[in-house]
C-alpha cells in the first residue's frame, strides 16, 4: 500500500479485502512485538497511508470474526443485509402484484397488450425487468410488443385491412353472415383469407351472424272437407333443373297495427324465391297472387312438368289454387298437417326470412303491412341476387341458374331443356 494524502487521515480510496487483511496482520504483529495495543493502529496507519479510524474498524471486525471480541461477524452482517434486501424486494413485489390483481384474477395470462400497458404505467417506479420477472413475462416479449406498436408487423397491417373488408361485406349482406358465410363472401370477392382468420377478426370487430333459434309457431289451418293432392315429393327437395319443383308455405309476422302474413314460392333447384306476397290475411287470394308473381318471373309461359309442393293448409287445398296450377301446367303436391319435415325447404326459407329480415340486426319492429312489404322486397332481391347459398356452391341463386342455362347453351345434349 503506498501512502496517499496525509498519513493517518481519512481517504476516499477503496481498499480490497487482501489489503485490509494485510493491514490487520501488521497491527497484530506490531502489538506482539511491543507487548501493548497503545498507538499501534495509528503507527501502522501512518506507515501504509490509510485512515486511523478505518484501520481501527478493520482490526475490531477481525477480532469479532475470530471470536476474540463479542459482536456481529462479517458473515452474519452480510446475511442480515441480504435478508433486508430480500424483505425490501418482497414488499415491492407485493405492492406490484396488488396493482396487477385486476387482470391476474382470472387465473390465465392476460393479453400481451394489457401487460404492456401495465409495464408502461409502472416502469418508472419498479423497472421493466422487475415487473416482467414477477408477471412471468420475458422482457424481450415486452420490448418486441413495444416495437410492434411503433412498427406494426405485416400480419397486424393485413389484419387491419381485412377487418375493413370483412366489416364492409358483413354490412352489405344485412349483418346476418356468420364466420363461414363471411369467409365464403371474402373468398368470392378475391381475398386470400382463411376461415379461422375470419372468425378471429369477427371477434375482434365484435360482430357475429344471426341465430335462427326461435320458437316454432304453426300457421297451417287444414280444411277437413277439402280433397288433398298426393305427396309427390316425399321429402326429396332436389331438382335437376329450374322449374321442376317449387315449394310454398305461409308464415306470420306481428306488426304494431296487427298481424301480417307472408307467402313464399321457392324453386328447389336454385333456392330462388320466384314469387311472394305480404297481406293482412291468410286468404287464398294472397297465395294466388304469389303464384302469379312466380309465373310472371318465369316469363309467363306454361311450366309443363312442374310440381308445386305445399303443406295441407286450406289455402293450398282450395279449388281455385289447384285450378290455377293446372292452367300453368303444374301438378300439386301436399304433405301432412303440422309436420315441418314434409315441407322442410319452405320452412327453411321462412326461417331465414324471420332471422335475416324480420328479426335482423337492424330491425326494430314493423308499423304495418306496407312497411313490412317494402322490407321484404329488399330482402328478396338480396336473397336472390347477392346472398351466398351453400346448396348453390356458395353463389347466389340467380347466378347459379344463369350458370345452368349457360351450360345448356354450350352443351348439345342439353338443348331443349328450358
TrEMBL record:
Residues 1-21 are annotated as: Disordered. PROSITE patterns: INTEGRASE. Residues 238-404 form the Integrase catalytic domain. It comes from the Bacteria. Pfam families: HTH_21, HTH_Tnp_1, rve, rve_2. Transmembrane segments: none annotated. Involved in the transposition of the insertion sequence. This is IS3 family transposase.
